[in-house]
Hints:
The protein is α/β, with parallel strands linked by helices and about 400 residues long.
Amino acid sequence: MLLTGEEERMLSGAEGRAVGKGMQLIVALGEVFGAERLVRITSAQIAGVSYGNIGDAGLELLEDWASAGARVRVKATLNPAGMDLERWREMGVGEEYYGKQIRIIKAFERMGVETTCTCTPYLAGNLPSFGDHIAWSESSAVVYANSVLGARTNREGGPSALAAALTGRTPLYGLHLDEGRRATAIVEVGAELRSPHEFSLLGYAVGMRMGAGVPFFEGIKRAEVEDLKILSAALAASGGIGMFHMKGVTPEARFQDTAGLERILVSAQDLEKARERLSSHGEPDLACIGCPHCSVKELAEIARILEGRRVRAGKGLWVWTSRAAYDEAKRRGYVQAIEAAGGKVFADTCMVVCPLEASGFSHMVTNSCKAAHYVPSTSGMGASVRSLESAVSEVLEG
Ligand code: F3S
């Protein structure tokens, strides 16, 4: 692979041990995927933050790199941690877990990473421009950034995103190149999509059907940020999809030549099948909303649903969002409205990366297919998917 003089210098370790290791990883990845060279990036989104996921080995590595003076060269933000950094006790998180999670956050901070702890960095100040090369490792944000923003990133892992942040480079292959971004199948949507939940079902059904590739959606009349973020999450959960185009909605759709592509029809029955596949038997006792993290608009919607109603005794309503959206929603009174009705709004973490089993609940109901896909394996709980209104209503009185 062709490296510049500066990149060779990083690789040799002359700019520090961590930069050297980071560059080794970037170069090794580039060689595996046949990249001819590296490309400069403008931002990184780093996953692998939860202590529950990376454990003591990950914590020690991060502290070692931070102590060795490693510093990021581009704007770098963090994925959700394993707990709300302020209200961790209310989640059932223990002292030891708390202590180790805080050490992880501090290590990232010492390296210059912004400790945003959200999977919606694009709603929290990390908003790349059209055409920017970036290295993001949150799969839902990868799909959103490629498709909706027109930025360019492969589906990075936590270590490769951190390595990219420390070197300012990523290998030039896959979704960084025009050919990797071309539509590979037309998805004709024959169902009416009336809510983000239905976009989630669509994403899950298409991810299962295609597995990989770049779907080109036709037949969707309008889509808002909340629809596109939950669609992105579901496409990446059931398949290995890193990008989609949507006719009349996403910026690169008009450049696509779709003549001769395979045509996939998705009907209302296909959405129903996705819902059934993700729903296990059992009575839900915990409604979880916020996968990906809720926007301020979604927090307002939950507050509206709760007007004049209360969470039933023995049930829970846990809502997940970024610290940035939490603060804004608190300023507008939505957090107070949700909590006055018996719900809880947590920031910095989510139902998949926190130890949800410590909540004491046994069956989660959600509007997000990604959450329902992962929660049974990460926490051992049952899961069901419904619309936002019916998931929330499931745990309310009356
Ligand atoms: Fe975000 Fe957690 Fe879902 S990271 S996309 S809320 S699984």
